[in-house]
Design brief:
single chain, alpha+beta, Trna Endonuclease, Chain: A, domain 1, five-stranded mixed beta sheet, three-stranded antiparallel beta sheet, 4 helices, globular
Length: 147
């Protein structure tokens, strides 16, 4: 497993662990489920499909606090689909988490951002700031889309 894959898997397990602390049952996949990394059930019994994006000191991202993709990913925008952005900052004991409804993640997404190069897409930390530690959004379902 490459360094980038290891960083990505670490983000998935961190996210699953924090979800558990918030009373959400979550499990990562050992293989690749196209489009999603975690399946979760909220305390109210709501199903959540979650994509996890991890930025870290040894990932392919050009700077910490940004999440880049080679090409835009699949996104349905369904109200039970969420993205969790994980920032594994070097020399900081706890990762930072941004919990974003998928429809908002698509809206905040940048294509060919400044200095990123053609074909690269992604998100900047500043765009995601309103969603830092917003674990409560997972319990809100359709209402979360209007954040």
């Amino acid at each position: 497993m490459g360094q980038t894959s290891t960083v990505g898997r670490a983000g998935e397990f961190y996210a699953a662990a924090v979800l558990s602390r918030h009373g959400v049952w979550a499990t990562p996949f050992s293989g690749n489920l196209p489009g999603y990394d975690l399946v979760a059930i909220t305390p109210g019994g709501q199903l959540r499909l979650i994509q996890v994006k991890t930025s870290g000191p040894s990932s392919n991202n050009k700077k910490i606090g940004s999440w880049w993709l080679g090409k835009p990913g699949h996104a349905s925008g369904a109200s039970n689909h969420f993205w969790i952005f994980v920032d594994l900052i070097k020399n900081v004991p706890e990762p930072r988490f941004y919990v974003v409804p998928e429809s908002k993640a698509v809206e905040l997404h940048h294509a060919d951002g400044p200095g990123w190069g053609a074909g690269w897409t992604g998100w900047e930390e500043g765009d995601l700031q309103p969603f830092e530690n917003r674990w409560d959004l997972l319990n809100e379902g359709d209402a979360a889309v209007g954040v």
